């Protein structure tokens, strides 16, 4: 037995600075304060609103009809297709995201700061733009292979960003201790570094899985049937909403199971350290003979995820005869997109704050229920969320119907998990003992949040808001249904032009969308904690 295998003492006084806390002490055992519970419950109720709509629609013709829609062979086929695609994309994103994070943060990779920015830029490229670029170049990719390639290249930053942040925030002293005990680089990475990255990698993988299950644009262009495409086809084919609602309910159940599985992977270890400012400075590992291979790996990923789609758009802008676009209309559409995306990101970040803090600091049924409720809306297709909000607005909030606030609420429902995951990861790295010290000094629960918890987690919260802003800009199905009459975003104009085959006319809107989304993506990649 080595020193790494000896259990830690359970008293905090004997725990070395930066060492993991005793099992069971990662999060508070008591109930969260009402300061957190009330706004978190509000966020959860908004997130589960589409579920109420699904229940009404699925059962309006009786349980037997809903069961017939679920129990058919078509449902089993869509289930296998959707889960298979999600599994492949998640595995590929984990491999790409973790490897790129380690190369850019923990090694002496030439141009590491530039690479850390470049590998976040795929966030600015919508999955349907990536799918279009690859499909136009290689039509034979249509189907599962093309969908997997497009979604992997669009989604791996969801893993890279939290893992890179975790690598920057962890104390390298643990790894140095392992190396001093005779462990090689590989064993140190597997036994020391990788366990500390588990929450970040699992949270990023969950976001990728939910993104794949709810994606509509890429799988539609690739003509690969998944639950989202099947639900959209069912909505379009009939006025009877029961089959589509039943399929959406299956998708929600899949989401709950995925969130529960991700929760179990976290374990009970404490991933924070006391005295963050005194941590040892990270000494980058030398790559030696592997340096050319590492550079080739980073360059290949950036070229495939960013360079190739941009080259395709450049081709259509240069040679397309239909590229007669109005600069004033493009500028107006861009401003509209920025406005609604800013509103959506702001509301989502505010709603995610109490949910993320509860998920990081507390255990118990209430904490798990609130977190799982926040993730529920992300698995419901955008078209279902939009119809649910229309259903609610027409009956109970008529002034919101066909107004921008309703669209912003849809963004909050769809992308709440993005902000919740970033907030939870940031709060996990803020030592819980500091909250206890603040309470012992007489601070109220709200005072602890304002003066301790939120300031410590602010970089992660801001990163989650920036990421939410990017995905709000790219959102398509809900925007198509909920936008006020006469309002267009870059995503809806791009989809409209692409749907009519006017690829050259769509190229300016795609280029503007990528350019605007690249700004927060650049800031996310440039950020250093």
Q: How is this structure best described in words?
A:
By secondary structure, the protein is mainly α. Helix content is 73%, strand content 0%. It contains 22 helices and no strands. It has helices spanning 34-58, 63-70, 73-106, 112-118, 127-137, 144-155, 157-169, 173-180, 185-214, 217-221, 227-237, 242-265, 291-319, 327-361, 365-379, 382-396, 404-428, 432-440, 445-474, 477-482, 490-499, 503-526. α1 runs antiparallel to α12 (242-265) and α2 crosses α12 (242-265). The protein is globular, with a radius of gyration of 23 Å. The model is unreliable at 1-27 (pLDDT under 50).
Q: What distinguishing features does this structure have?
A:
529 residues; disordered N terminus; mainly alpha
Number of strands: 0
pLDDT averaged over residues = 78
C-alpha termini separation? 35 Å
The unreliable regions are: 1-27
Helix content: over 70%
> Could you give the order of the helices and strands?
HHHHHHHHHHHHHHHHHHHHHH
* Number of DSSP helical runs: 22
List the helices and strands and how they pair.
Elements: H1 34-58, H2 63-70, H3 73-106, H4 112-118, H5 127-137, H6 144-155, H7 157-169, H8 173-180, H9 185-214, H10 217-221, H11 227-237, H12 242-265, H13 291-319, H14 327-361, H15 365-379, H16 382-396, H17 404-428, H18 432-440, H19 445-474, H20 477-482, H21 490-499, H22 503-526
Give the gist of this structure.
With 529 residues, the protein is an all-alpha fold.
């Amino acid at each position: 037995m080595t020193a790494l295998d000896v259990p830690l003492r359970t008293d905090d006084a004997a725990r070395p600075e930066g060492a993991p806390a005793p099992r069971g002490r990662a999060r508070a055992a008591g109930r969260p304060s009402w300061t957190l519970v009330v706004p978190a419950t509000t966020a959860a109720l908004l997130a589960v609103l589409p579920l109420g709509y699904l229940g009404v629609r699925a059962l309006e013709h009786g349980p037997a009809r809903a069961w017939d829609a679920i129990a058919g062979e078509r449902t089993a086929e869509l289930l296998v297709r959707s889960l298979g695609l999600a599994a492949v994309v998640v595995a590929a994103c984990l491999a790409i995201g973790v490897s790129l994070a380690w190369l850019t943060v923990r090694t002496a990779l030439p141009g590491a700061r530039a690479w850390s920015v470049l590998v976040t830029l795929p966030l600015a490229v919508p999955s349907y733009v990536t799918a279009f670029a690859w499909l136009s170049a290689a039509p034979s990719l249509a189907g599962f292979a093309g969908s997997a390639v497009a979604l992997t290249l669009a989604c791996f930053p969801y893993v890279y960003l939290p893992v890179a942040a975790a690598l920057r925030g962890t104390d390298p002293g643990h790894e140095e201790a392992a190396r001093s005990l005779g462990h090689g680089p590989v064993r140190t990475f597997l036994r020391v570094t990788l366990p500390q990255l588990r929450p970040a990698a699992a949270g990023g993988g969950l976001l990728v899985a939910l993104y794949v299950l709810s994606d509509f644009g890429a799988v539609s262009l690739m003509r690969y049937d998944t639950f989202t495409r099947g639900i959209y086809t069912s909505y379009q084919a009939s006025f009877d909403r029961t089959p589509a609602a039943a399929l959406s309910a299956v998708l929600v159940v899949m989401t709950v199971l995925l969130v529960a599985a991700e929760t179990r992977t976290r374990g009970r270890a404490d991933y924070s350290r006391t005295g963050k400012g005194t941590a040892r400075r990270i000494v980058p590992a030398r790559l030696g003979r592997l340096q050319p291979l590492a550079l080739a790996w980073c360059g290949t990923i950036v070229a495939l995820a960013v360079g190739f789609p941009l080259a395709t758009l450049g081709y259509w802008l240069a040679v397309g005869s239909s590229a007669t676009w109005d600069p004033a209309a493009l500028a107006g559409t861009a401003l509209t997109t920025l406005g609604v995306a800013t509103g959506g990101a702001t509301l989502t970040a505010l709603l995610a704050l109490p949910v993320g803090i509860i998920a990081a600091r507390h255990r118990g049924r209430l904490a798990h229920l609130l977190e799982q409720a926040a993730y529920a809306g992300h698995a419901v297709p955008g078209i279902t969320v939009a119809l649910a909000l229309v259903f609610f607005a027409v009956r109970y909030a008529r002034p919101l119907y066909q107004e921008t606030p309703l669209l912003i609420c849809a963004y909050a429902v769809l992308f709440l998990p993005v902000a919740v995951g970033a907030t939870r990861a940031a709060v996990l790295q803020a030592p819980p003992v500091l909250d206890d010290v603040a309470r012992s000094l007489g601070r109220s629960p709200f005072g602890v949040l304002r003066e301790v918890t939120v300031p410590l987690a602010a970089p992660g919260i801001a990163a989650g808001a920036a990421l939410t802003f990017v995905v709000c800009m790219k959102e398509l199905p809900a925007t198509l249904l909920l936008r006020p009459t006469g309002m267009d975003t870059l995503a809806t104009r791009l989809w409209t032009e692409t749907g009519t085959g006017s690829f050259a006319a769509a190229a300016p809107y795609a280029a503007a969308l990528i350019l605007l989304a690249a700004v927060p993506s650049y800031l996310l990649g440039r950020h250093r904690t």
